[in-house]
Design goal:
The protein is built from 11 helices and 9 strands. By secondary structure, it is of the alpha/beta class. The chain folds into 2 domains: about 55 residues; about 190 residues, Rossmann fold (3-Layer(aba) Sandwich). It has a 7-stranded mixed β-sheet, with helices on both faces. The protein has a two-stranded antiparallel ribbon with strand order 1-2. Helix 6 links the parallel strand 3 and strand 4. Helix 5 runs parallel beside helix 6. The radius of gyration is 20 Å and the shape is elongated. Bound molecules: S-adenosylmethionine. The site of S-adenosylmethionine has 22 residues, from helix 6.
């Protein structure tokens, strides 16, 4: 089989995901290959047939290939941990721009550690503590922090948002993309999203359980709110305004959806 034929096969099988798959498998834009009649090496073809089978069965591409592009990093990911989203890059951008000099920040609900890794990479003056309840997430965070040589500025600790906060140090800021999907929307998740961990997605009946708890616990633990940057769902801004007593700023993402809730402690 040549590259032109391979591209045609992928396009028929994957439709909208065609471009992303070509990029993952061949590290090229499909346009570069559409007229390429060179033979595809056998080894690549056999990998391709395994990958295509898994993706056609609904497995997310990022799990199949083991990484996701995020900001200007390639974040390792695996089943059991949320795939980093493009939507979250706006939080990273905000943190890079606004964290105070030498800030010590928490990446609360860290998942793959994508937020901490991107911020630490671009803000060499900062340090982080990554916290998550999931062992698999902590393992992935460890991998990603190591991949970018950030270990000396990053600690990783198992932590339950709904548990005891007394052991936490004082942070200059909390960066947090918590589970925030409400009960109604959990029932209509696309099939590929259903392959991601339920505990990384479900934010309680109204989607706001984590925000409620983090705001309450932060007030008690820090004796006032620290600087917090939350990622929020596109329809959660009013809920966050109420939870913060209208002391927050809502910012939009590049698609013009409400995406960040910023509390300036
Ligand atoms: C929406 S994911 C965000 C992951 C990552 N920060 C990102 O942006 O890709 C939420 C994370 O919260 C973690 N989590 C769920 N319940 C938790 C809890 N009670 N305490 C701490 N972390 C929790 C999940 O394991 C998951 O990694």
């Amino acid at each position: 089989m040549n590259y032109k034929e391979l591209c045609a096969e992928i396009k028929t099988a994957l439709k909208d995901d065609f471009r992303a798959y070509c990029q993952y498998l061949l590290d090229k834009n499909p346009e570069e290959l559409l007229f390429d009649k060179a033979d595809v090496p056998e080894e690549l073809l056999s990998k391709h047939s395994e990958y295509l089978k898994r993706i056609s069965a609904g497995e997310p591409m990022q799990y199949v290939f083991g990484y996701a592009p995020f900001y200007d990093l390639y974040i390792d990911c695996a089943p059991g941990v949320l795939i980093p989203r493009f939507d979250t890059e706006v939080l990273v951008e905000e943190a890079i721009k606004t964290l105070p000099q030498n800030a010590y920040f928490a990446d609360l609900c860290c998942g793959t550690g994508c937020i901490a890794a991107a911020v630490l990479k671009h803000r060499e003056d900062t340090k982080a503590l990554c916290l998550d309840i999931s062992d698999k997430a902590l393992e992935m965070t460890g991998k990603n922090v190591k991949k970018y040589g950030l270990q000396s500025r990053c600690n990783i600790q198992k932590f339950d948002v709904f548990g005891n906060w007394s052991g936490l140090p004082r942070f200059d800021a909390i960066l947090c993309n918590p589970p925030y999907i409400n009960a109604k929307d959990m029932k209509t998740l696309p099939d590929n999203v259903k392959k991601e961990p339920y505990e990384a997605l479900y934010g309680g009946e109204d989607g706001l359980d984590f925000y409620r708890e983090i705001i309450k616990k932060s007030k008690d633990h820090f004796k006032g709110l620290p600087h917090i940057i939350f990622e929020i769902g596109y329809d959660e801004a009013d809920g966050l305004r109420e939870l913060t007593g209208f002391k927050c700023e809502i910012k939009k993402d590049l698609s013009n959806n409400d995406r960040l809730c910023i509390i300036r402690g």
